[in-house]
Amino acid sequence: MSGAVIELADIRKTYNEGTAIAHEVLHGISFKIEPGEFACLIGPSGSGKSTLLNLIGLLERPSGGTYRLNGTAIGEADDDTRTRARLETLGFVFQFHHLLPAFSALENVMLPGLMRYGAYTREVRTTAVKLLTAVGLEAAMHKPPNQLSGGMQQRVAIARALALSPRLVLADEPTGNLDTHSADEVFALMREINKTQGAAFLMVTHDPRLAARCDRVIEMRDGTIVADAPRQP
Amino acid sequence: MRFEWTVALRFLREGGLQTLMIIAGAAAGISVIVFMTAFLGDLQADLIRRTLGVQAGIIVRPAEETARPLRQDNAALPQIQARVQRLRSVDQWQPLRQRLENTAGIRAVSPVAAGPGLITRGETSKSITLTGMTPALYAAVTRFNEKIVAGEYRLSPGDTIIGSDLAHDLGVGVGDKVRLSTPTSPGDVYQIRAIYDLGQRTLNRAFAYVSLPTAQALLDLPGGISGLELAVVDLFGAEELAQQLQQTTPHEVESWMRANPQLRVALANQTVMTVLIRFFLGLVVAIGVASVLVVSVVQKTREIGILRAMGASRARILRVFLLQGAIIGVTGASLGCAGGYTLTAVMSQFVRAEDGAALFAAQFDATLYLLTVAGAAVLGLAAAIMPARRAARLDPAQAIRL
Predict the structure, then answer these.
(1) What's the CA gap between A166 and B380, in Å, rounded?
(2) How far is it, in rounded angstroms, from Cα B396 to Cα A92?
(3) What is the C-alpha separation between A111 and A134, in angstroms, rounded?
(4) Sequence spans of domains, chain B
(5) What global pTM score does this model have?
(6) Do A115 and B312 touch (CB under 8 A)?
(7) Which of B367 and B42 is assigned the larger pLDDT?
(8) Which tens digits make up the pLDDT trace of B249-296?
(9) CA B305 from chain center: how many Å?
(10) In a mutagenesis test of the A interface, which of B6, B310, B400 is the best target, namely the one with the most A β-carbons within 10 Å?
């Protein structure tokens, strides 16, 4: 598949639309992300980064503008189509890990496969084990999340996001909750996966150190993009 | 559905004590439902047996004679006098008896010749119903043999069996002699072979049993019988069977239900009561399941959000929670069936009639258990509808932010 992974044109988002307290948080956002890109989204709190990420992640709907995912307009698509697109095209990594506590690390990584194929197939299992090995957790994969450290949990979450080989991984402050050492490790891992698997990444971060190591930095302020540039050499 | 099963089971397991408590609650409620269902039939059958005494499930007797005026026109004010009902034999009763014996739903057939009579000892006479029967057949229909308290259940020509209160009134016992007479016969002297006790004074004074040929002679019914008494397999289906039989015979067919409308009403009321109790128990179980699932949806809001974000559709989340309701229902019902059986077995040891007979027996009723489990699955599903829809409607973006 060629062309941009995502293409945003004049995306707007208004909360409490049509009421007296209507409040526009995104004022016409436009940009593209190409396959294999590693971009980060920076900006102060309240600038609309998380809202934009939720929009791109099909968790919220835009109030205006066009959103194309893999070339298909998906902003207005029905819930089932958007849900399927989330499963098959996107991977999520959240700040607070968000693993399912009732499932072991391995089972968490196999869940997307179970959703897609309706069974823990051999392929689902092999992929999950391979991913967990790649993130350095082959020894801990049968442990429940609450027996893993924060960094380990985040690595499980990354493995889970990659389980169905998504074209785009959305990461909302994936290292925000980790110490510097773990943050560096997790970031390095994402970069490596970006190179080896070719998945594009869009990462929200507050950490200028990490932002400086991305290919592209998109800066937001008050619901608009104020800077969008490739990394300074 | 594999995804839904996996997640539903994990969620329930994660619920721990909460899950155990609601399953225990459902099991307790359902075991009482099973217990009540299982013992109600036995209890009512026992009640009927005791109340009816020696009444058979269905009785076939000659149709009443009716007056048939010759002039059908209304030329004059007709005054028709109702006819006197004579003691008559059931016409062609031998082939009828054979046909009835081969009819499905009829366990036994006993020909009986009964009519008014007097029992006399010395100066004292008591009016009785003289009943002629064949002991083995009569026992098969009425279990009369179980009511014998003294002597031997046997009727040779010249033998009679009377009730305990009548024996007391006459001051006689087994082996003593009494005179039996009827309006049509001066009678003869008979030896008391046995004494019965039906548990009711009036019934214990009402009958004197003799062999069928003896009664035929005394009542002037040579070769005839006053009725055929039938034991039915399904006591509560007696009326239906009686109506079917009525279609095929000119004789009058009467079930115990029609002969004892007050008993039937009392039993129907009892059934309605237990149906109500069972219904409300089911309702309580359903509300319990629903409330636990509502709490579970709140507790699992974040997990539901994650699953939605990962690509689980609304329908899948809905099914995850519906399944949880069904699983709780089925597990609770399985334990409840075991509990109900145990309860019946234990209670049948303690709850007994005054005479010591068990009022009900613990029976392994597979149909009842299957129906209960299926019913509980539906109940659990129904109880889960509201919480499941709530879970499915959650906004994933908000759920994750929690």
Answers:
(1) 38
(2) 13
(3) 18
(4) 2-49+264-401, 93-259
(5) 0.74
(6) yes
(7) B367
(8) 888 999 988 888 888 888 888 888 888 998 998 899 999 999 999 999
(9) 54
(10) B310
Q: For residue B338, which of B30, B43, B39 has the smallest C-alpha distance? A: B30
Q: What is the ipTM of this complex?
A: 0.87
pLDDT in tens, B172-216: 999 999 999 999 888 899 999 999 998 889 999 999 999 999 999
Look up residue A192 and give its two tokens: 């490596």
Q: How many residues does chain B have?
A: 402
CA distance B109 to B44: 23
Distance, CA of B47 to CA of A54 (rounded, Å):
71
Cα distance between residue B51 and residue B265, in whole Å: 14
Q: Say whether A19 sits in a helix, a strand or coil.
A: coil
Q: Which CATH number fits domain A37-50+83-230: 3.10.20.580, 3.40.50.410, 3.30.2140.20, 3.40.50.300?
A: 3.40.50.300
Interatomic CA distance for residues A181 and A184, integer angstroms: 5
A1 lies within 8 A of chain B by CB: no
Contact A116/B302, CB-based, under 8 Å?
no
Q: Which residues of A touch B314 (CB under 8 A)?
A: 79, 83
Q: Do A92 and B397 touch (CB under 8 A)?
A: no
Report CA torsion sign: B94, B98, B99, B103. positive
| Interface membership of A70 toward B (CB under 8 Å) | no
Q: In Å, how far are A50, B128, B178 from B122, measured between CA atoms?
A: 112, 16, 8
Check if B308 contacts A (Cβ < 8 Å): yes
